[in-house]
Amino acid sequence: MSDAYLQINNLKTHFPVEKGILFRKVTGTVKAVDGVSLHLAKGEVLGLVGESGCGKSTLGRTVLQLIKPTEGTVTLGNQTLTDLDGRELRSARADFQMIFQDPYASLNPRMTVYSMLAEAIQAHRKVPKGDLAGAVGALMEKVGLAARFMRKYPHEFSGGQRQRIAIARALAVEPKLIIADEPVSALDVSIQAQILNLLSDLTREMELTMIFISHDLSVVKHISDRIAVMYLGRIVEIGPATEVFEHPQHPYTKALCSAVPMPDPDSESTRKRILLPGDPPSPLNPPSGCTFHPRCPYGEERCQAAWPSFESLKNDEHEAACVRLAELTQ
Amino acid sequence: MPLLDVNDLTTYFHTRNGVVRAVDGVSFQLEKGETLGIVGESGSGKSVTCMSMLGLIPQPPGRIEKGTAHFDGTDLLHCSPKELQSIRGRRIAMIFQDPMTSLNPYLRIEDQLIEPLLIHGLADKASAKIQALDMLDAVGIQDAASRIRGYPHEFSGGMRQRVMIAMALITKPDVLIADEPSTALDVTVQAQILELIKKEQQELGTAVILITHDLGVVSGFCDRINVMYGGKIVESGSTKDIFYNPQHPYNRALQNSIPALQAKGKELYTIPGMPPDMSKPSAGCSFAPRCEHATDLCTSEPPTLQDIGQAHTTACLRVQRENLKP
Amino acid sequence: MNDTPTRPDAPDTVEKGESLWVGAWHRLRKNKMALAGGVFILLLSGLSFMGPFFLEGDYYTNTTLGDKLEPPGDDYPLGADHLGRDQLGRIIKGGQISLLVGLVATFVSLTIGIGYGTISGYFGGKVDSVMMRLVDILYSLPFVIFVILLMVFAKDLGDSIDAWFAARGSEFSISGQWNMLLLFVAIGAVEWLTMARIVRGQVMSLRRQEFIEACISLGLPTRRIIFRHMVPNVLGPVIVYTTLTIPAVMLLEAFLSFLGLGVQPPTPSWGLLIKDGADRMREAWWMLVFPGALFAITLFSFNFVGDGLRDALDPKTSKD
Q: Which chains touch C (3 or more CB pairs under 8 A)?
C-alpha cells in the first residue's frame, strides 16, 4: 500500500458558506469531500462513481490542486502535491492533467487547434519553432484526428472530435496521471464507445494512471480496473470493477446497481428494483454517523453513531463501509 | 382505430446553411394505453417529430412540409390554432428533459399546477386546487399540503420533474409525451421517475410516448419501440423483437456499442464515422456510409419501411430483399 | 536513445479554418440596418474630418453680420446663424468635434475600464471587493457637480498658464485645447466605470469556464491566461458596449455644451449648435432642424451598428 504510485490520504475539501454584505460571517460548511483515501498503482485505472452532489468532481479537482484541500495529502510518485505552491506547482503540473466533461466549454473558442496544442506542448518544454507543426500533427493523429484540420477552430468540430482535441491537449505535456471527469457523458452513445476505446488504448500504451469519474456505472465498469463508489463526500465501497458491479456489498451500491437500466427487456421486466426514498441530502448538513442511513433500507440505530470503518468479506481487495456488512450478506 | 395516427410527417428547417431535413417522412401509430419508445441519438429527429405534432416548432425556420397526424379524428397538423390549443396540454401532454428550466421560477407550484385545469375550463379555482394537491401527493411529493405553496427553486431536480409530471397528468390526458424525462437526473432518481410514470400510466390508462437515447430505459418501460436515424424510422417493433431480433444494422450496431452488454476489457464495438449531416441528404440509405453491410444497392436506392412479419418493420433494403441477418 | 530523433513532419496540406470573427462578420453583413448605419457613420466621418481640407480656413468662424439669420439659399445651403456664420460649415466642424469627443473619451474609458475590470474579475475575492467598492463610490458621485468643479478649476488653471506665457511674451494659449482635453478626461473618467463593470462581469463568468481551468491545469502563467485566453473572449461584449458608448458620450457632451460647460464658443459642437438653434427656434428653424436631425441620425446609426454587432457576436451561435 505504501508503495502506491498515487496516494490520497484523508483528503478533505470544505467550503465555508458566508453570509452578510459587508462583513462576511461563516454560517456553515459544505463538506464536499470529507475524508477520502485512495491508493493507485502505476498504470491503474480507478473508476469513481457517484451521483450528483457526492463530491466526485470536487475530489478530482482537489487531487489536481485546482482546488486547495482543507486537509489531507496527495502524493504522486515521490512528490507531495499538496506541499507545492506557486511556480513549483505550475511546473509540476506537467505530471498530472485533467480531461473535462463538456467538450464545448473546455476549449477556447477563439484559438485554432494548432495554437492550443502548440501552447500545451510548449508549456513545459522547449520545442524548436520548425518542429511545432509536426509535433502538433503527430499528437492529433495519436487521438485519431486528421492533422490537416489543425488550423480549424473548435466550433468547426463535432462533440466527439472536440473531446479528442481535449485529450490531445492533456497528453501534450506528457503527464503520468490523468483525471477524466465525465469525459463521455456529453456525447452520443455511438461516439462514447469511440472515445472510451481511445482512452483505454492510450492509457495502456502510455502507462498512464487514471481516475475515471462518471455517474454511468456501465461505462466505468468497462474501462476501470477498480471501482470506488462515493456518497456525500466519502468512499463507501471499493473493489475490483467486475466484483463491485456484480456483487455489491454496500447498500448504496446495491441500490445504485439496481437502478441502472439494462438494455434487456426480459431481465428488466423481472428485475426487482431497490428504490431509494427521497433525494440525496445536501453536503451542507450531512446526517450524523453513516451519512447514508436515512435512506438506507437497512438503517438502524447504531448507524447513526459514527462513520463505519471499512470491512471486507471475501478478500481484502473488496471493502465497504457498513457496520452491518457481515449480517447483510448472509 | 389507433389513438394517434401519424402519416408521412416531414419537417424541414430552412437555415442559412441549407435545408435541414430534421424529420423525413415518419409514420407510426399509437394505440390507447400503449407505451411507445422512440429511440435515437441527437439529430435523429425524435424530439422534432413530437414537437411538430403539437405545433411547438418555431415556424420560421421550421416548416412542416407535409404529412398528417390524426388524433381522435382531428388532424393536428391541419387544424385551427384554437383546436390545437384545446388538445395540447389537455388531451396530449408533454414533459421535457430539463426540470430546471421547465418551470416558471416566478410562480408558485400551486399556481402552475392549476393552470392547465383553469385554461381548459375543466374546473373552477377551488376544485382545481384540491385536484392539484391530490396530484402532488400522487406523484410522491412528501408533505404536499405545505410544499404546494412553494417556488420551483425550493425543489430538487427530481422533485421538479415530479411536479412536471403532475402538471402534465392533472388533466388526465390520453397521451403523455415524455422527452428524455430522466436524462438530466441521477440514476437513482431516474429509476424513481420512471416507476412513477409507469404507475400513473397504469392508473389513468394514458398512452405514453417515451423519447430517449437510452436503450436501457426503453427496454424496461415500453411495449413498442421505433428506432430513428437521420430523420427517419429505421426499425419498429415490439420491445422484445427490437432487442432480441434486431432487423436493422443501426439497431444492431447501437446495441453492440453499449458498454453494459460487453464483456469487460474487450474493445467496444464502435460505429465508424459520424452521425449524418441533415442538410445534405443522401441518395440511398442515410446509414449506409457507416454500415458494415452496405452495398451498392444501399447507396443508390432510398429505403422505405416494410413489414417483415408480426408488426415488425424495417427500412433496410438488404433485410427486406436478401434476408440479411444484421 | 542514441540515434538522432527524426523530425516529425508537418502535414502537406492544411485546411483553413474559419474563426468566430469571420462568422460574425458574415452575419453582420446580412443586417441591413447595421450596414446602413455603418455606411452613414463612415460618410459622416469622411465629411467631418476630410471635408475641411476643401474649405476655407475660417469656414466655421467667418462672421458676416450682414447675413445674420439668412434662411437656406444659394449662399448658405443650410442657412446662416445669428452671427452670419455658415451653418453648413459649422455643422461640419461640429461633427468633427462631437465625433472626436465621442471617440477619444470612449477610448479613454475603454483603456482604463478593460484593465481594471479584467484584474478585478480574474483575481476575485478581496481584490475584487476592494476594486469594486471604489467603483461604487465613484459611481455615487454626482457627475454634473464633478464636471462643473473640474471645469471651473481647469479654467482657472488654464487662465493662469496663459498668463504665465503672456508674461513671457509668448502668444501661446492653452485655454482652447485645455478645455477640450478636460472634457475628454471628465467624460472618460465617468464612462470607464461602467466599462469596468461590464468587463469584470464577463471575466468572472469566463473564469468559471472549463477552458480557463484547463489553462491553469496545464500550468500556464497567469499573464498568458489573461491576455491570450481571457481578453479575446471578452472582446465581443466590449466591442458592442463601446459602439453603444460613443453615442452616449456624444449626448453627454451635448448636454454639457447646453449648460455651457462643454466646448467653448466659437468652436462649435452639435450640442452648442442645437442650443443656439433652440434659443432661436421661432425665427430661424434651420438652426435647430439641421444639426438636430443630423445628430439624431448619427446616434441612431451607432445604435444600429451596436445592435447588429451584438446579434452577430451572439455567443449562442458559437456552439455548433
A: A
How far is Cα of residue C205 from the mean position of the Cα atoms in its chain? 26
Nearest-by-CA chain A residue for C10:
A134
SS3 label, residue B307: strand
Q: Name the minimum distance, in Å, from the CA of B41 to any CA of chain A.
A: 6
CA distance C312 to chain A (A): 15
Inter-chain touch C19–A130, beta carbons under 8 Å: no
Q: What is the pLDDT of residues B17-67, one digit of tens each?
A: 788 889 989 999 999 999 999 998 888 889 999 999 998 888 878 889 999
A194-208 tens-digit pLDDT: 899 999 999 999 999
Beta-carbon separation of A190 and B270 below 8 A: yes
Q: Which of C9, C21, C218 would you mutate first to test chain A, the one with the most A CBs within 10 A? A: C218
Angle formed by the axes of helices B157-169 and B125-138, nearest 10°: 130
Confidence of residue C200 (pLDDT cuts 50, 70, 90): very high
Give CA–CA dist A223/A218, Å, rounded: 9
Cis peptide leading into residue B152 (ω within 30°): no
Give pLDDT, residue A21.
65
Q: Flag whether pLDDT at C107 surpasses 50.
A: yes
- Cα(A284)–Cα(A14) distance, rounded to whole angstroms? 10
HEC per residue, B14-71: EECCEEEEEEEEEEEEECCCCEEEEECCCCCCHHHHHHHHCCCCCCCCEEEEEEEEEE
Of C45 and B264, more confident: C45
The rounded Cα B301 to chain-centroid distance in angstroms is 28
Round the average pLDDT of chain B to a whole number and report it: 87
How close, in Å, is residue A85 to chain B by CA atoms? Answer: 36
- Minimum distance, in Å, between the CA of residue C294 and any CA atom of chain A: 38
Residue numbers in B near A261 (CB within 8 A): 190-191, 194, 214, 216-217, 219-220
Beta bridge partners of B146: none
User: Quick one: pLDDT at residue B266?
Assistant: 67
Interface probe for C, chosen from A84, A99, A141, A155 (most Cβ of C below 10 Å), is A155
Q: Measured between CA atoms, how close is C131 to chain A, in angstroms?
A: 14
C210 touches chain A (CB under 8 A): yes
**Residue B105: all three cell numbers together:** 421560477
Asked if C168 is an interface residue toward chain A (Cβ–Cβ < 8 A), one would say no
Chains within contact range of chain A (3+ C-beta pairs < 8 Å): B, C
B90 CB-near residues (< 8 Å, 6+ apart): B116, B120, B122, B171, B173
Tell me which residues of chain A have a pLDDT lower than 70: 1-3, 20-24, 329-330
Contact B258 A263 (CB under 8 A): yes
Q: What is the mean pLDDT of residues B123-135?
A: 91
Mean pLDDT of chain C: 81
| CA-based radius of gyration for chain C | 25
Decide: residue A236, CB within 10 A, 0-12 exposed, 13-18 middle, 19+ buried. Answer: buried
The side-by-side arrangement of strands in the sheet containing B74-75 is B18-30, B4-15, B62-71, B74-75
pLDDT in tens, A230-256: 998 999 999 998 888 888 888 899 888
Instruction: State residue C131's pLDDT score.
Output: 92
Q: Which residue has the higher pLDDT, B197 or C317?
A: B197
Burial of C280 (0-12, 13-18, 19+ CB in 10 A): middle
pLDDT attached to residue C3: 45
The reported pLDDT for the residue numbered B175 is: 94
Could you give the ipTM of this predicted complex?
0.85
What's the rounded Cα separation, in Å, for the pair C287 and C285? 5
In this complex, do C218 and A173 lie within 8 Å of one another by their Cβ atoms? Answer: yes
Mutation site for C-interface testing, chosen from A67, A110, A188 by largest number of C Cβ within 10 Å: A110
A51 and B275: CB-CB below 8 Å?
Answer: no
